[in-house]
Design goal:
The complex is a heterodimer. By secondary structure, chain A is mainly alpha-helical. Chain A has one domain: Rhopdopsin 7-helix transmembrane proteins, CATH 1.20.1070. Chain A has helices spanning about 20-45, 50-80, 90-125, 130-135, 135-160, 165-200, 210-240, 245-255, 255-275, 280-290. Chain B is about 60% helix and about 0% strand. The chains are: A mainly alpha, B mainly alpha.
């Protein structure tokens, strides 16, 4: 008999649709913000440091993610208007290319966050030798290796997405990296806390306990934002691979567009918590906008 | 999305051809899913996932705040020896350049000179005013304002810093009450003394 592919049950979980205006606004905001960060770092020679190059790498991967969503939406609109056929070979290849762009963005984000955490770790624990360990050339080489690896894996994953062998490592990589980054930051945090204790034990110190709360809040924001924005999508991929016919899984997968919007929100939030913390970068922005007027 | 194509290939094998996959805004390819006889609410995975995520983040936050209050005791035992080592290496390295600072400053242009005046002033202040800790931070903040203007001089600065054997960091403030930002390193800090090492790592996570 014919399996039509339609489920006509009344209690279906219908697709939760995000309005296109919201989609495009969020995507455009993400792209613009990250582009500004890139321009600011390129223009100001004071910012040609490894730390800012890693932040730029994060900005590039966020931009790719938002770009992917924008392009996908544009193509769907073109499909609806009839300019593109739905079953052509060209569209299939385009779809493949866009999928690999998206996975590239995810992998790039994860590895950029890892690079930023490692850079800060070396800053604290190898402070005297930081300048010799993390030279500009080494930072650029590290970034080149990261992006080559991400590009290769994204193309491989997009081509072989039917295999369980690609889905499982992809979903294991995500919590593994998160855990590693968490360990790095917790170790830095412990050192800062013990130093704060030492400073507080000095006779005329005025360091308050509340400053340690700020560290906990900062760290929670970093990791919480990344988790909340990417984990829903990763769970979607897992469920789509392993239980597509389960009604509970199908209801989770119906909020796919909300998950996509969350990823674009991550692109907007990331510059705020990484790039805009830097006073130098903010003053570069002010100069850029003052000169533009 | 690749997940979508995967589903359509698997569910539509019986009826449709393999090349017949579509980009759909509404993903009908999920196939016949029956919603009869569900024991729990149909959005239970969604709710469970988000509740679990929130609980995890809050748990992480409480663990981190607990770390601030108590913390592992063996960390305190391990730290002082490292600190002493750093202090010794720092004093040894920093002992030389004070005399040669004048030689350096004559060779370099005006802007980068301000950077080294910052360094020397910082050292002087830290030596004099060991009791008051707010003094040097104000001094260093004032001097640090000059550094961003030396746009073309950064490479020379870095070279001179290596000769000084100081890593590429600038420690501007000691207390978070002075600054607006600097949560988890906004500026690369110059560490001039072992105390500054402590301060920067303390500042970094504030």
């Amino acid at each position: 008999e014919n399996i039509s592919g339609f489920s006509l049950n009344v209690t279906d979980c219908t697709q939760v649709v995000v309005p296109e205006e919201v989609f495009f606004t969020v995507a455009a905001a993400g792209i613009l913000e990250n582009l500004l960060v890139l321009i600011a770092v390129i223009r100001n020679k004071n910012l040609h440091l490894p730390m800012y190059f890693f932040i730029c790498s994060l900005a590039v991967s966020d931009m790719l993610g938002s770009l992917y969503k924008t392009l996908e939406n544009i193509f769907i609109i073109l499909c609806k208007m009839g300019y593109l056929t739905r079953r052509g070979d060209f569209e299939k290849k385009l779809d493949d290319a866009m999928d690999s762009m998206f996975i590239l963005s995810l992998l790039g984000s994860i590895f950029s966050l890892l690079a930023i955490a490692a850079d800060r770790y070396i800053t604290i624990f190898y402070a005297l030798r930081y300048h010799n360990i993390m030279t500009l050339r080494r930072a650029l080489v590290i970034l080149a290796i990261i992006w080559t690896f991400c590009a290769g894996s994204s193309i491989a994953i997009a081509l072989f997405s039917y295999e369980a062998a690609t889905v499982i490592p992809f979903t294991i990589l995500f919590p593994l990296m998160m855990f590693f980054i968490l360990c790095l930051y917790v170790h830095m945090f412990l050192l800062a806390r013990s130093h704060a204790k030492k400073i507080a034990s000095l006779p005329t110190s005025t360091v308050h306990q509340r400053t340690n709360m700020k560290g906990a809040i900062t760290l929670t924001i970093f990791l919480g934002v990344f988790l909340c924005c990417w984990a829903p999508f990763v769970l979607h991929i897992l469920l789509a691979r392993f239980c597509p016919h389960n009604p509970y899984c199908a209801c989770y997968m119906s909020i796919f567009h909300v998950n996509g919007t969350l990823i674009m929100c991550n692109a907007i939030i990331d510059p705020m918590i990484f790039a805009f913390r830097s006073r130098e970068l903010r003053s570069t922005f002010k100069k850029m906008f003052c000169c533009a007027r | 999305m690749s997940a979508l194509r995967l589903i359509s290939n698997r569910t539509s094998q019986q009826a449709l051809s393999n090349s017949d996959y579509t980009w759909e805004y509404e993903y009908y390819e999920y196939g016949p899913v029956s919603f009869e006889g569900l024991k729990a609410h149909k959005y239970s995975i969604v709710i469970g996932f988000w509740v679990g995520l929130a609980v995890f983040v809050i748990f992480m936050f409480f663990v981190l705040t607990l770390l601030t209050k108590t913390g592992a005791p063996h960390q305190d035992n391990a730290e002082p020896s490292e600190k002493r080592f750093r202090m010794n290496s720092f004093v040894a390295d920093f002992g030389r350049p004070l005399e040669s600072e004048r030689v350096f400053s004559c060779q370099i242009a005006e802007e980068s000179r301000s950077l080294f005046h910052f360094c020397i002033n910082e050292v002087e202040h830290l030596d004099k005013a060991k009791q008051s800790q707010k003094g040097p931070s104000l001094e260093s903040r004032i001097h640090f304002q000059e550094v961003p203007r030396s746009s073309g001089m950064l490479e020379e600065d870095l070279n001179c810093l290596t000769k000084f054997n100081i890593p590429n960091f600038v420690n501007t403030e000691q207390n978070s009450s002075l600054g607006e930002d600097d949560l988890l390193i906004s500026e690369p800090p110059i560490i001039l003394e072992s105390k500054s090492v402590m301060q920067s790592s303390h500042r970094i996570l504030d």
